[in-house]
Design brief:
Elements (H helix, E strand, L loop, with lengths): L1 H14 L8 E4 L5 E2 L6 E3 L12 E5 L7 E4 L5 E8 L5 E4 L2 E4 L4 E5 L5 E3 L2 E4 L3 E5 L5 E4 L3 E2 L5 E4 L4 E4 L9 E3 L2 E5 L11 E4 L2 E5 L11 E4 L2 E4 L3 E5 L2 E5 L1 E4 L4 E5 L2 E3 L4 E4 L13 E4 L5 H5 L1 E3 L6 E3 L5 E3 L3 H19 L9
Parallel strand pairs: 1-4, 2-5, 4-6, 5-7, 6-8, 6-9, 7-10, 8-11, 9-12, 10-13, 11-14, 12-15, 13-16, 15-17, 16-18, 17-19, 18-20, 19-21, 20-22, 21-24, 22-25, 23-26, 24-27, 25-28, 26-29, 28-30
Antiparallel strand pairs: 1-3, 31-32
Length: about 350
């Protein structure tokens, strides 16, 4: 019986490492170093965060006076949260980090940049990367999480996704800036939601899974110059913005608007004609109500769809009325057998 209980306890601890013993470790050397060296850390334990499979909290504070690299030689390392708070750059490189916290697992609270070369394996069904800092975070390693694992971004920083990530859950941008800098940066996500205060920059072609629907809930979607991407159905639940680039295109499978306004910036060209810069397409029929909810900045509110599926601005009302008047006048003259006399 004792042996059976021991096996059960070991199984629970293996599946839930946070139950073993959790402590907080703070990086304590102003130098490059290995993660798995106890003396490089100070905190509530004499061990490095994540030793023996425990889900601990790792903090990288303002101890460094220049850019430093922390190398992970053990893989994977299980941690609860990881926090950065410095004006200089921390680089974490090596194997895989597994995140177990049910709250915000990744916190960028500093003004310095952070470079993550290690991969991340999301453990919770809902995962959040955020923080109160304004520094940039480069995720150069793959963010993985099947079965599926959702990922939300919040805070005031800039998050660069520089790898072809494989997490399969939903993606939500609540605030801050998320930049997709490589093909398939969101190539496996189930869906995307852009809330008010959140900005998603498509900085590489084919960055988003083609079938992934996107909910525009007050956020901003920006297309970089020359980038083209195909996305699933766009749902507009709150007034939102799309910023077009100087070339390239964004193509959506379908639309579903709920009375809000979609503002499209930076469109160039002549009304009733294909744009000369970045273009936007919808591969489905659009109702008059949906088209009325689209505004191209600098043009009359409303939009029309060309035979190619491209959405473009409508003509100015005065132009429409003038054309209608000319056509009507010519028709009236034709009916009455009158001809326009040339001016002598």
């Amino acid at each position: 019986m004792f042996r059976g209980r021991s096996i059960a306890v070991l199984l629970v601890l293996f599946l839930c490492p946070s139950l073993i013993r959790a402590h907080t470790g703070t990086w304590n050397v102003d130098a490059n170093g290995n993660w798995e060296v106890d003396t490089n850390w100070t905190g509530t334990s004499t061990k490095w965060p994540g030793d023996n499979g425990t889900a601990d909290d790792a903090i990288f504070g303002n101890v460094i006076t220049a850019n430093r690299t922390v190398t992970q030689t053990t893989s994977p390392i299980s941690i609860n949260t990881i926090t950065f708070n410095d004006d200089n750059q921390y680089t974490i490189t090596g194997g895989q980090l597994r995140l177990f916290s049910s709250g915000t697992q990744f916190n960028q609270n500093g003004t310095g940049s952070v470079v993550i070369g290690s991969s991340f394996l999301l453990q919770q069904n809902a995962n959040t990367f955020g923080g109160t800092g304004t520094g940039t975070v480069d995720f150069n390693g793959v963010i993985d999480g099947a079965n599926p694992k959702a990922l939300a971004f919040s805070g005031t920083g800039i998050f660069n996704l520089n790898a072809a990530n494989t997490y399969t859950g939903t993606t939500t941008v609540n605030s801050g800036n998320v930049n997709l800098n490589i093909a398939s940066a969101m190539g496996s996500t189930a869906s995307i939601t852009l809330n008010t205060g959140g900005t998603l920059l498509i900085n590489a072609s084919n960055a988003i899974k083609d079938a992934a629907p996107i909910a525009m809930a007050g956020g901003t979607l920006t297309q970089a110059n020359g980038v083209s991407d195909t996305i699933g159905t766009m749902t507009l639940t709150s007034s939102s913005t799309i910023n077009l680039g100087t070339s390239g295109s964004l193509t959506f499978a379908n639309t579903s608007f709920s009375g809000s306004t979609l503002t499209i910036n930076n469109w160039t060209g002549s009304v009733n004609s294909s744009g000369t810069g970045g273009k936007i397409f919808f591969n489905s029929s659009m109702s008059a109500q949906t088209l009325a909810g689209i505004t191209f900045t600098g043009y009359t509110p409303g939009a029309l769809v060309l035979s190619t599926g491209e959405v473009v601005p409508v003509p100015e009302p005065a132009t429409v009325m003038a054309g209608f008047f000319v056509v009507s006048l010519l028709g009236w003259r034709a009916r009455h057998g009158l001809r326009l006399r040339p001016i002598a």
